[in-house]
Specification:
This protein is α/β, with parallel strands linked by helices and 366 residues long. The protein has two domains: 7-145 and 326-364, Nucleotidyltransferase, domain 5 (2-Layer Sandwich), CATH 3.30.420; 148-321, 2-Layer Sandwich (Nucleotidyltransferase, domain 5), CATH 3.30.420. It has 14 helices and 13 strands. A hairpin with a 4-residue loop joins strand 5 (101-106) and strand 6 (111-115). The longest helix has 27 residues, at 60-86. The radius of gyration is 20 Å and the shape is globular. It starts with 6 loop residues before the first strand and ends with a strand.
Length: 366
């Protein structure tokens, strides 16, 4: 590793609640160069505790604080394993960019909450931590989300090509990168979240491998149309959402009693595909290519459905642009930490609705 390297770790644990993505990234050239990655899954007990804390309950302040501490131990263990893989010592890393685990996101009420004790993470790793990226944008009147479009613009924008990127995690978010013109970005709605919850409830699996179960069912078009009439889908951006809004309660409130579980799964997959395609038709005209990242990029059935809805647009994974689809968001949070270190803005006001560009994050020195 060059002595001029400027190394940052990006940590991402998203609404899918599957685990922690960690990326070690070198910014010595001003552009991200991926050095090493590590994925650490959550155990079932932690996943259940995180699911429970999404809903108001007894002693939730204490439970949230203890979960924040537990998560920080998981984050620290992930960082140690990442650095061991790379043969890098903590002293060589400038900072960790830690998104934290979102348990509340209420932009209409001007607050968001991500669990994770950043001070404890700094203590456990011996590395400075930059966290709480959403709050500054919210203080300026924005949604605090999505934050990745600024990274997408910096790394994937191309002057002579109309591109869009969609990250399909628990929630799906899209970034429109026109060949010329303003960048747009917003959460399109559920990504994998509802599909994962449904297959967990009915088959005891954490996700639908390659959309196989969804492929065995039939799409219920009347139910799909009912879902797509939800106020979230029809409202214009800027907008953002999360597990607070789209969850099993939202799903079960609309389901006919006689519907087969596999048909529900098929309809949920089509909801993700249709909401992404509708967002592109409404707000991202003139596209040449749609690049997909996140866990949904590995679901060939979902990608095929999106492609069928967008026949004039090439659909590919970000792997084709040189960044593995599994690691885009972790790299993005390393980038946000690097932007903070440079005292450069990390938001796009046109995306989040903030009053202007803002330096995002708070520093917890080692």
């Amino acid at each position: 590793m060059s002595t001029t390297s400027k190394l940052f770790v990006g940590l991402m644990s998203g609404t899918s609640l599957d685990g922690i993505d960690a990326a070690l990234v070198d910014f010595s050239s001003g552009q991200p160069s991926l050095v090493a990655t590590h994925y650490q899954p959550y155990d079932g007990q932690l996943v259940q505790a995180l699911l429970d804390i999404h809903h108001p309950g007894q002693n939730e302040l204490h439970r949230a604080a203890m979960l924040g501490n537990a998560l920080s131990h998981h984050y620290a263990d992930t960082v140690h394993k990442l650095l061991a893989t790379a043969g890098i010592g903590p002293a060589q890393v400038t900072a960790i960019g830690n998104h934290g685990q979102t348990i509340r996101h209420h932009p209409d009420s001007h607050y968001t909450l991500q669990l994770g004790n950043h001070a404890l993470l700094a203590e456990l790793t011996g590395i400075s931590v930059i966290g709480d990226f959403r709050s500054r944008d919210m203080a300026a009147g924005g949604h605090g989300a999505p934050l990745v479009p600024a990274f997408h613009q910096a790394v994937f924008g191309q002057a002579d090509e109309g591109r869009a990127l969609v990250n399909i995690g628990g929630i799906a978010n899209i970034t429109c990168l026109p060949g010329n013109g303003a960048v747009r970005g917003f959460d399109t709605g559920p990504g994998n979240l509802l599909m994962d919850a449904w297959i967990q409830a009915h088959r005891g699996k954490r996700y639908d491998q390659d959309g196989a179960w969804a492929s065995s069912g039939q799409v219920a078009e009347p139910l799909l149309q009912q879902w797509l009439e939800d106020p979230y889908f029809v409202s214009p951006p800027p907008k953002s959402t999360g597990r607070d809004y789209f969850n099993l309660d939202w799903l079960k409130a609309t389901l006919p009693d006689s519907m087969q579980p596999a048909d529900v799964q098929a309809t949920l997959l089509e909801l993700t595909a249709r909401s992404v395609a509708d967002a592109i038709h409404r707000f991202c005209p003139g596209l040449d290519t749609l690049f997909v990242c996140g866990g949904g990029a590995r679901n060939s059935t979902l990608l095929a459905h999106i492609g069928a809805l967008l026949p004039q647009i090439k659909v590919d994974k970000t792997d084709a642009l040189g960044i593995d689809a599994d690691w885009v968001e972790a790299i993005a949070f390393a980038w946000l930490a690097w932007r903070f270190d440079q005292r450069l803005p990390g938001n796009l006001p046109a995306v989040t609705g903030a009053a202007g560009p803002r330096i995002l994050g708070a520093l917890y020195p080692a």
